[in-house]
């Protein structure tokens, strides 16, 4: 689409006006319409009929804000689109629009200011594409990715005040971030001061992984809880010492059950008699 | 029939963060605009598909960079636009001022986040939080910082 | 305007300060001032900072809180920061932000429980990033 305001005279590319009309009218995949300077619909095409649902006689003369959902109308989006297009020559947006039957579709919209050779604003060209399918597919993929991640890093409450998270597989940056977020949320949801993070299922621990674990412990501490790291196998213990990684201010145990014991000790220490100070 | 569009100043929706969500700008002219900037970016992010933590990252970075504008240049502008690259969507925010500029951008970015007190405080932090960041600065002329984050 | 929306409550010899959701810079600075004045006036031995509604923790806020914790310690008081939101904790960690010697608690109730126990031995100053 043109990025400059341009004259609406027939350009010098050789097509007559009738051919242009045929071109615009016939395109089915794009809604190509013209608005007058105040936003009323003055032309309609096959694509507009298909995407938006209105027939010519129903829509010509109506204000284009009819295509917008209520929350957009509240915020004055239609006027803003025209103002921006008038000022900058064009405006592009991806957002929800509404069909004649009230259903929504995800639209890619380009509005172009149409000026004659004096620069007078004659109206706006509006090209809209229905991208609902693409958007739904994207959202499905994202949802599935999230679900996969959740299945592989469950955080379960194992006791009043204790959550446990067995980590299985290697920990990359992305996975650690998401694990951290979920662990912290669960800690807050269940009001658990102790989190058992079991790394028995983590094949190797290199400096990166160790840093991710340290970050997780720090974040949990900021929340007001603490981590007991369990499942530290001999091989892992050796690697950590050889790499010079200092986990000395984190409580670690070799098994989950030993970790649970520590957790209960921590919790019992916190039971303070209410009568004294 | 050729009714003119009301001038920009009259449009009731013309207030930085009330803009249509995929593009807008906010003038930074006072200390209170730092919090306005945070709220504006938060609103913008709500219309994109960022997770809560990423929203917090972007808002935090915006807070840092807006404060930089206010503290070192006195005034400037924050602009944002949604990004679409194939199936990827994201947000780009640009912070521009005509302030004193950053004499050594490399150094400003290297400094430990919590210890830096001088020029560019918040730059290394913003860099850590965002996916992409570019800094253009000329001593005496001004600074442009652009940050981007993609929806994951 | 800045100091209006900060509440500083005194419960026995502990101050409870509730930080508003998105405080502007002047409010944050006023917070520090108010806290220190109140600590002196009431001879408080501890401070509970409730940040359970705070959504953004940028470097300015972190610095002022960290300073306040130090100042309170100098005046003989413990600080417990309570209710940090998960997304805020993730970002604070990513940025290497520290709350100094402040203790932390999941919520205000647990903060008060914590204060009934003796203070932990001060940790050696440890950087979160290498």
What is the CA-CA span between the terminal residues of chain C?
A: 41 Å
Strand order of the largest sheet of chain C: 1-2-3-4-5
Q: Counting H and I runs of at least 4 residues, what is the number of helices of chain C? A: 4
Shape of chain B: globular
Note the overall shape of chain C: globular
What is the first-to-last residue Cα distance of chain B? 47 Å
Proportion of strand residues of chain B: 25-35%
Give a description of the structure:
The complex is a heterotrimer of chains A (277), B (152) and C (130). In chain A, a hairpin with a 5-residue loop joins strand 1 (31-35) and strand 2 (41-43). Chain A is elongated. A 5-stranded antiparallel β-sheet of chain A has the order 2-1-5-4-3, sandwiched between helices. In chain A, strands 6-7-8-9-10 form a 5-stranded mixed β-sheet, sandwiched between helices. Helix content of chain A is 42%, strand content 23%. Chain A has helices at residues 17-26, 46-52, 56-59, 70-74, 77-88, 132-152, 173-190, 207-223, 234-242, 256-269; strands spanning 31-35, 41-43, 90-98, 104-115, 121-130, 156-159, 162-168, 194-201, 226-230, 251-252. Residues 1-7 of chain A have low confidence and may be disordered. Chain A folds into 2 domains: 17-136, PAS domain (Beta-Lactamase, 2-Layer Sandwich), CATH 3.30.450; 153-269, STAS domain (Transcription Regulator spoIIAA), CATH 3.30.750.24. Chain B has 152 residues and is of the alpha+beta class. Chain B has a single domain, classed as 2-Layer Sandwich (Heat Shock Protein 90). Chain B has 4 helices and 5 strands, in the order βααββααββ. Chain B has a 5-stranded antiparallel β-sheet with strand order 1-2-3-5-4, with helices on one face. In chain B, a hairpin with a 3-residue loop joins strand 4 and strand 5 (142-150). Chain B is globular and about 40 Å long. Residues 126-130 of chain C have low confidence and may be disordered. Chain C is an alpha/beta fold. In chain C, strand 3, helix 2 and strand 4 form a beta-alpha-beta unit. Chain C is globular, with a radius of gyration of 14 Å. Chains in contact: A-B, A-C, B-C. Chain A binds chain B through residues 36-38, 72, 75-77, 79-84, 86-87, 92-95, 120-122, 134, 138-139, 142, 174, 177, 181, and chain B through 1-6, 8, 11-14, 18-23, 47, 49, 51, 53, 82, 84, 87, 89, 151-152.
């Amino acid at each position: 689409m043109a990025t400059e305001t341009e004259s609406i005279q027939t350009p010098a590319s050789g097509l007559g006006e009738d051919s242009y009309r045929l071109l615009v009218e016939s395109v089915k995949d794009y809604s190509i319409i013209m608005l007058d300077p105040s936003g009323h619909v003055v032309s309609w095409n096959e694509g507009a009929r298909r995407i938006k649902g209105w027939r010519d006689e129903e829509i010509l003369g109506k204000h284009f804000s009819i295509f917008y959902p209520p929350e957009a109308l509240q915020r004055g989006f239609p006027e803003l689109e025209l103002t921006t297009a008038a000022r900058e020559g064009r405006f592009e947006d991806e957002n929800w629009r509404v069909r004649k039957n009230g259903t929504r579709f995800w639209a890619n919209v380009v509005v172009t200011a149409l000026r004659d050779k004096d620069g007078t604003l004659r109206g706006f060209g509006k090209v809209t594409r229905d991208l609902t399918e693409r958007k739904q597919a994207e959202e499905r993929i994202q949802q599935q990715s999230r679900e996969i991640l959740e299945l592989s890093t469950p955080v379960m409450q194992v006791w009043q005040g204790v959550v446990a998270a067995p980590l299985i597989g290697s920990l990359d940056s992305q996975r650690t971030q998401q694990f951290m977020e979920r662990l912290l949320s669960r800690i807050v949801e269940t009001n658990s001061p102790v989190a058992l993070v079991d790394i028995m299922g983590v094949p190797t621990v290199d400096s990166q992984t160790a840093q991710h674990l340290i970050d997780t412990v720090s974040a949990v501490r900021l929340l007001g809880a603490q981590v007991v790291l369990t499942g530290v196998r001999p091989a892992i213990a050796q690697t950590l010492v050889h790499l010079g990684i200092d986990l000395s201010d984190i409580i670690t145990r070799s098994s989950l059950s030993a970790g649970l014991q520590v957790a209960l000790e921590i919790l019992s220490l916190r039971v303070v008699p209410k009568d004294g100070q | 029939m050729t009714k003119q569009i009301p001038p920009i100043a009259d449009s009731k929706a013309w207030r930085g963060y009330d803009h249509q969500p995929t593009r807008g700008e906010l003038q930074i002219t006072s200390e209170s605009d730092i919090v306005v900037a945070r709220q504006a970016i938060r609103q913008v992010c709500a219309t994109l598909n960022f997770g809560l933590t990423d929203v917090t990252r972007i808002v935090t970075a915006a807070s840092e960079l807006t404060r930089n504008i206010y503290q070192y240049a006195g005034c400037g502008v924050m602009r944002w636009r949604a990004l679409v690259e194939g199936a990827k969507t994201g947000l780009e925010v640009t912070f521009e001022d005509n302030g004193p500029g950053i004499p050594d951008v490399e150094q400003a970015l290297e400094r430990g986040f919590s210890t830096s007190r001088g020029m560019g405080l918040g730059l290394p932090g913003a860099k850590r939080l965002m996916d992409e960041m570019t800094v253009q600065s000329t001593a005496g002329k001004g600074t442009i910082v652009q940050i981007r984050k993609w929806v994951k | 305007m800045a100091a209006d929306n900060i509440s500083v409550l005194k419960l026995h010899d502990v101050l409870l300060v509730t930080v508003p959701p998105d405080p502007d810079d002047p409010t944050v600075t006023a917070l520090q001032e108010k806290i220190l004045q109140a600590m002196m006036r009431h001879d408080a031995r501890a401070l509970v900072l409730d940040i359970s509604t705070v959504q953004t923790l940028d470097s300015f806020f972190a610095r002022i809180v960290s300073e306040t914790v130090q100042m309170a310690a100098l005046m003989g008081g413990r600080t417990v920061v309570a209710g940090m939101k998960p997304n805020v904790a993730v970002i604070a960690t990513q940025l290497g932000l520290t709350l100094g010697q402040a203790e932390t608690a999941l919520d205000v109730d647990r903060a008060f429980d914590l204060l009934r126990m003796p203070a932990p031995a001060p940790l050696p100053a440890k950087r979160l990033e290498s």
